Amino acid sequence: MYPFVSVILPVYNAELYLKEAIDSILNQTFGDFELLIYNDGSSDRSNAIIATYSDPRIVHTVYEQNIGLIQVLNNGLSESKGKYIARMDADDISLPNRFEEQLKFLEQNPDYGICGTQVKLIGREGMLNKPCDDESLRWWIFKGSPLAHPSIMMRASVLRDNKLSFNPDAYVVEDFELWWHMAFHTKMANLNHVLLHYRIHEQQVSSARNKLQHFNFRASQTDFIKTLGINSQVYSPEYINDLLSRNLICDPDGFEKLWKFFEDLHGSEQAVRFFGVNSIRKQLNEQAVFMLQNMKEFNAGFLKYLSSDVFKGILNAAGISKSTFVMKSLLQWKTR
Q1: Angle, CA of 200, 204 and 210, to the nearest 5°
Q2: What angle is formed at CA 91 by the lines to CA 219 and CA 221, rounded to 5 degrees?
Q3: What is the C-alpha separation between 167 and 222, in angstroms, rounded?
Q4: Which tens digit of pLDDT belongs to each residue from 280-298?
Q5: Is 335 contained in some domain?
Q6: Same domain, 110 and 190
Q7: What span, in angstroms and rounded, lies between the C-alpha atoms of 116 and 128?
């Protein structure tokens, strides 16, 4: 009999927190899993700590030389036997009901292939709060990673059927890269409560490689934009993030580029497949309403939008009458 869940736990010089991490998995309320622990060339007491456990669910693999996190993760994916694959890091803590809650969601929602949770930080005040619904998570990709990596549980069949794995070239952002590729084939979700405590400390790869992480993150976002079928040179990750975060200047030029962006999204088969027509229209409406309500100036060029029924609806949603809009455009009205 295969285990229902495979848990991938990479270890590299993690003696300070490793026991707490392993215990948090072994003490889950759902117990039908295999815990794949990969000791990736550690030079500390990590091996000795793992050796103290006799739980038959643990499968311990030791690499004499460090092969790197991404290779370890991909080995874990290929060696996993479970219907679901969960991730865990050697310095984090999973709450006892984490697996039970995630499995309940995934079993009840077969169109969802990946499920994360909300995360509480250790070593720093705060939370990693992410949106929960699939639609919001898709747009969140323009801002950051939609899922906290060590909190996720994935449907193994989505990876296997679509030949997906962690990209060796996406160093430090391998999780983000995999999530958006998966999202072309399945839905995403985050459970709306904390089920993982995430430790912040200076030894983390992401802390030590901050500049490289930022560079690779932008590169992956750019690849995502290209995959959507729109021009990444015209619509850079920074521009789209500013648009969705409402940090653009509210003027005619800003509105024209916003309008063209959503027009291009709507015209791209890949973008429509990824977001859906209704979601693109909804996002256009929200961003355009905000910009019109905060417009610093108008000009006659605005009048061309009146031929669009969509724009008329946006005007109405913004609380701007057609006559007021025409008058301000003709007078080239500016904020005094």
Answers
A1: 100
A2: 10
A3: 15
A4: 999 999 999 999 999 989 8
A5: no
A6: yes
A7: 11
Contact yes or no for 32/4 (Cβ under 8 A)? yes
| Same domain (yes/no): 241, 210 | no
Kindly report the pTM of this predicted structure.
Answer: 0.92
Query: What residues make up the domain containing 277?
Result: 230-330
Total structural domains within the chain: 2
- CATH number, domain of 88, equals 3.90.550.10
The neighbouring-strand residues paired with 120 are 127, 197
User: DSSP strand E in the chain: where?
Assistant: 5-11, 33-40, 58-63, 84-87, 93-94, 112-122, 127-128, 153-155, 187-199
Kind and range of the H or E run holding 298: none
Cα 164 to the chain's mean position, in Å? 16
Q: Are strands 58-63 and 112-122 parallel, antiparallel or unpaired?
A: unpaired
Amino acid at 63: Y
With beta carbons less than 8 A apart as the criterion, state whether 109 and 190 touch.
no
Q: Is 114 in a helix, a strand, or coil?
A: strand
82-123 residue pLDDT tens: 999 999 999 999 999 999 999 999 999 999 999 999 999 987
Residues linked to residue 7 through DSSP beta bridges, in sequence order: 35, 86
CB 242 within 8 A of CB 141: no
How far apart, in whole angstroms, are the C-alpha atoms of residue 304 and residue 325? 12
* CA-wise closest residue to 173 among 138, 197, 200, 149: 149
User: In 3D, which of 173, 117, 106, 119 has the Cα closest to residue 144?
Assistant: 173
Question: What average pLDDT does this structure show over 133-139?
Answer: 97
Identity of the residue numbered 333: W
Q: What angle do CA 121, 32, 196 make, to 5 degrees?
A: 5
